[in-house]
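[Q] Does anyone have a clean structure-token version of this?
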Amino acid sequence: MQRRGVGLAAFDHQEQSKRSFAELSSALSKIQVEHLHSQLNQFRTSLAHFAATHRESIKSDPSFRHAFQQMCSSIGVDPLAGPRKGGWWAELLGIGDWQYELGVQIVDVCVSTRERNGGLIDMTELIRLVSKLRGGAITEDDIIRSIKTLQPLGAGYQVIEIGGRKMVRSVVKELDDDQTTILSIAQEEGGRVIEDLLIERKGWSRDRTRNALENMLFRDGLCWLDEQDEATGRAYWIPSALQWDI
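[A] Here you go.
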């Protein structure tokens, strides 16, 4: 009986120790959470102050904006992503709408040039035209980020790479392999392509070459046909590979 009493006392002592450790753990967790909330509030205040102080520089200076985005990205914050994706950071800092405004201007340029380029525009040309529309400089990174915000619209806006050059597609259609090859060669040739050049470089048959070019011309609207070309009498021009002074 005496041993059983000792056993019960030891059990009670063990249970008391468990409760004490649980209470200590709960107290420590509470302190840690309170400390985390305090740090988050301090960080939010500091970031809000920084953004308010430098808001105009963030909007108008591409280099400063890129550095700010890189800083925010490193801590998992994207205040320029717009109110929906940027969450309360975007609302707090008051600069989330900047990305959507840029997105609208990208759409404006893509739609207004679609008739001549078939919905495919060189990234450099898009940056130039949007910068001219805005009256201020933007960067390739700005364009790429804004196009991501347009994806839910389902309008086909996408950044693609052809021949080592980035281009923006604003129509819901994929380029086939032959079209991609023709566009790459057009970039090297200043926008002008003839059947014999493709046959010589790629080893295509005459029928394959003509079918690919005519599909781009009649079906997709990606090129123009010059039937009075001085050199060959028939040449195709790819507008998305040209530079336009407008």
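[Q] Thanks! Anything notable?
[A] The longest strand covers residues 158-162.
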